[in-house]
Amino acid sequence: MGSTSAHNNEGLGRRDLIKRSAALGLITVPTMSFLSACASGDSGGDEKVEKGKKTEKNPLGVNESAPLEIVIFDGGFGTKYAEDAKAVYQKTYPKAEIKFSSTQKIRSQLQPRFNGGTPPDLIDNSGAEQMDMGVLVGKKQLTDLTPLLDAASIDDPSKKVRDTLRPGIVEMGQFDGDPVWIMYYAYTVYGVWYSESALEKLDATYPENWDDMLALCAKAKKKGIAGWTYAGKHPYYLPFSLYPFIAKIGGREVLDKIDNLEPNAWSDPAVKAAFEAYYELYKKGYILKGTPSIDHIQSQTAWTQGKALFIPNGSWVENEASKTMPADFKLAVSAPSSLDSSDKMPFGTIWASGGEPFIVPKSAKNPDGGMEQLRIMLSEASSKNFTQSVKSLTALNGGTDGIELTPGLKSATAALEKAGDNVVNPRLQDWYVKLQKEQIGVAGLGEMMAGRATPAETIKKIQGFADAAAKDQSIKHYKHQ
């Protein structure tokens, strides 16, 4: 599966030295009717609370005595940042009774409440059991957050909230037209995460091309260290580095075609080259043994213990893996390595976008309260608290002045600066959650990286899943504008 000699003759390029598999065809796949069942209910709930009086300090007209219910996903960022923001709401509106809870079972706990018309007022819809955002939007089950975006920011009433956000955050919350259905609170840098200390012990630096990546993995293997590991039970983590790798090889338009569910989008040469490069890691034995059967925490623990050099992940990993990360780990992140000199985008091309999606259900009793809680979270004080607590940036553009950045956060910031305009933002995980996680991730990439399917077989299977999604009239479809 390829040869490292391509590094010595860049004119040939690695993709010319990798054997191509048979032509792609369609396969029969299950329909995605599950998606429509996921958010089937649109039944009306109880009446909403009365609106309060709009004032300079209360631009959303929050009912100061109305109850508020918040449910937070308890994942890599924990819940303390949200509890701290809730305390600010409580201080601002002392008459309000606030019910705050957390869970890792977002879909199984909250979907029945959506269907019954009695959802909470604010939800952090994240994690493995994330409710399908595209379906919620398509079924008109979310509140348009435009009033929040047009409200005065807490820090500077002369500015609207929308004017204080990082580029792309508002657009990410839009699915079709002007309404904004989701507020992505965290700003996540995805990529290949590693320990600079581990590389230093191998007298190495991060490999900027794939030949050097394979050479470093071979060197590590001789010392009993795996090149890569990943969340085997949640292989939809693989795209965190694989998707920007595809864009780097073939241009960002390849990812746009994939997001748009265009016919034969997955048969693009850039996809083939990227899949075959990753498959090479498996074929050469550079994946940590047992990886397909471990979850994200177990893979991160093995990685922080020095059993593997690289792991595809998001910037939440610094907080999530902190308990097992040695003090001298020197956490760092990089964009994917180059494949060869004919790549369409430069080294440094990376995926960075809003993360931790917050939603206000349409049938929530107190939607104004839910938006007000988000307005509080988007203040500089709450943003700094989040960054200091969980070692990640927020959607607020800035909010890091006076904060001593941790190694991972410093590296992520440097990676963003290096990328410049070469930042990609695939939307598949927002628009078609089941397609991305269960089908492309588990049934596709998971099988390939475990050695149970070839790249050609995997591409054919994934194209079939995408075609089925494109033809499924029970779900709403979205396209890049």
TrEMBL record:
Question: Basic and acidic residues bias located where?
Answer: 45-57
User: One of this protein's Pfam families, by short name?
Assistant: SBP_bac_1
Q: Where in the cell is it found?
A: Cell envelope
PROSITE patterns recorded:
TAT (PS51318)
Tell me where on the tree of life, at the top rank, the source sits. Bacteria
Concerning InterPro entries, the annotation shows: Bact_solute-bd_prot1, Chitin_NgcE, SBP, TAT_signal
Q: Where is this region: Disordered?
A: 40-60
Provide the protein name: N-acetylglucosamine/diacetylchitobiose ABC transporter substrate-binding protein
Going by the UniProt record, its keywords in alphabetical order are: Signal, Transport
Q: Which family does it belong to?
A: Belongs to the bacterial solute-binding protein 1 family.
